[in-house]
Amino acid sequence: MSRLFATREGDDGLPGPERRLAVLALIFGTTMAVVDATMINLALPSIAADLEVASASAVWVTNIFQVTCAAFLLVFSGLSEVVGRRRLYVAGLALFAVSAAGSALSRDLNTLLAFRALQGLGAAATLSIGPSLYRTIFPSRLLGSALGLSSLVVATGYTAGPAIGGLVLSVADWPWLFALPVPIGVVAVILAWRALPREPGRRGGFDAAGAGCSILALGALFLAMDGVGHQTPVWQSLGWLALSLVVAGFFVWRQRRAPHPLLPLTLFRQRRFSLAVSASGLAFIGQGLAFVALSFLYQQGMGFSPLKTAWLFTPWPLAIMVAGPLAGRLADRVNPSLLSCLGLVVLIAGMIALADLEAEAGVVDCLWRTALCGLGFGIFQPPNNRELMASVPAERSANASGVMSTTRTVGQALGVALVGACLSVGAPVQTALWGGAVAGGLALLASFGRVSLAGEAARTRRRAASERVQ
Fold first, then answer.
1. Are residues 394 and 454 in the same domain?
2. CATH code for the domain of 446
3. What is the pLDDT, as a whole number, of residue 3?
4. Where is the chain membrane-spanning (predicted)?
5. Mean pLDDT highest for which of 91-105, 165-179, 284-298?
6. Of the candidates 319, 375, 384, 309, which has an alpha carbon nearest to the alpha carbon of residue 345?
């Protein structure tokens, strides 16, 4: 870990001591958003009972956060170029903390949903530009290690969220879950304002029309997929999907003509970038499929209790916590695309093993298969993210970061929707797991497609570093 904060002659990024504080601010910000997303689900029954609303209505406490966050990821990555990433990140942290306090004080569902939407806005502001800030804070030679640290933070949050939520609910009422991030948010705001690099905003207009199209297209797409996952009427999901596709078409048209596009489409001319985005989206579809499908398989197919089911999920993020930082560090030394391919092979093997589980299988059978998937995902993600971020010019890092976050969110939601589609037509839940293996196979093809490109880029980078030293 100490090598992440060591400074060499000729390094870009922040000096070592400043790097520590900046990374701490990013860790606080990411942890707040991830833990919130995983622990609030446990409180939904309590919220429904306390506010005297139907369970289906209480689900929107989670849904509105996710929809708002997903819809604004691209918008905030583009806005950061105008106002500066430091200002946007601090504003996002502050909004998240203030709206969390508002959620804790809410005594009716409508007020709670309003503050949860604001929390989603705050989370979108931080998550959309977080990876690009890692690229600014760390020297280029440590980008893979930095993104490995990021994957460790996210995996830790996913692991700790349910445990923290269960612990709080065992001794206090649900409002305390929302109050918990408030002091952490205050500390994060102070750290971020002090430690994150200052940068001038770009002169020029903001693509407001493109932003509106992005919000509407992504929001409608997320609602369509959420509807499939919750088996809402088909016409309703198709309506949201049609709206999303129409607006997305106008968004692309607008981006080709806007003087300052929200998302420069020239990014996708870089094959390394496009293939890394494709591999990431497909891998997250597989993960989204697995997380939901396993809940049904373990409880309905194998008869495990909800508590045991939650415990059986823990090897996945724990394996990412172990493999992610190691893979990120290796990605700074060897071809990251090869590492991504290796991780996907392991992930596919784990998905096939899970799909082949029999109803009478024991706990150990479930644990090692889940751990295998987590190991593969942990090996895949940091090298792939390194390729995604390093394949674009530094001035486009915020845009690349927004694409990365949006791809992850949409991929996971699509995976959930596909499980819902399988269940709605009466297909066995194992069908969804086989679908996850197929998604992993397609991601593997995309990753193989950039192996030679990544190798050439690495050789060019080493030659440039050698010339700087000389």
1. yes
2. 1.20.1250.20
3. 61
4. 21-44, 56-76, 88-106, 112-134, 146-168, 174-193, 205-225, 237-253, 273-298, 310-331, 338-355, 433-453
5. 91-105
6. 375
Residue found by looking up tokens 């996952």 in the block: 229
In the predicted model, is pLDDT for residue 282 greater than 70? Answer: yes
Dihedral sign for Cα atoms in the order 368, 372, 377, 382: positive
pLDDT above 70 as % of the chain:
91
Domain containing 222 equals 207-261
Token pair of 315 as six digits: 């090897």
State the CB neighbour count (10 A cutoff) for residue 203: 7
Query: pLDDT class for 469, splitting at 50, 70, 90?
Result: very low
Tell me the residue length of the chain: 470
Helices (H), 314-450: 315-331, 336-355, 363-390, 397-424, 429-448
Structure-token match 């086989």, residue found: 434
Nearest to 384 by CA among 443, 427, 439: 443
Please give the distance of CA 39 from its chain centroid, rounded to a whole number.
16
Residue among 95, 136, 138, 139 at smallest CA distance from 118: 95
Q: pLDDT, tens digit, for every residue of 365-376?
A: 889 999 999 999
Average pLDDT for residues 218-227, to the nearest whole number?
82
Residue whose tokens read 């966050």: 69
The answer for residues whose C-beta is within 8 angstroms of residue 86's C-beta and 6 or more apart is 192, 193, 196, 197, 198, 199
Q: Are residues 245 and 153 in the same domain?
A: no
> Hunting for tokens 């139907």 — which residue is that?
54
| CA R_g for the chain | 21
Query: Is the pLDDT at 305 greater than 90, yes or no?
Result: no
Phi/psi for 107 (5° steps) reads -125, 10
8 domain residue, yes or no? no
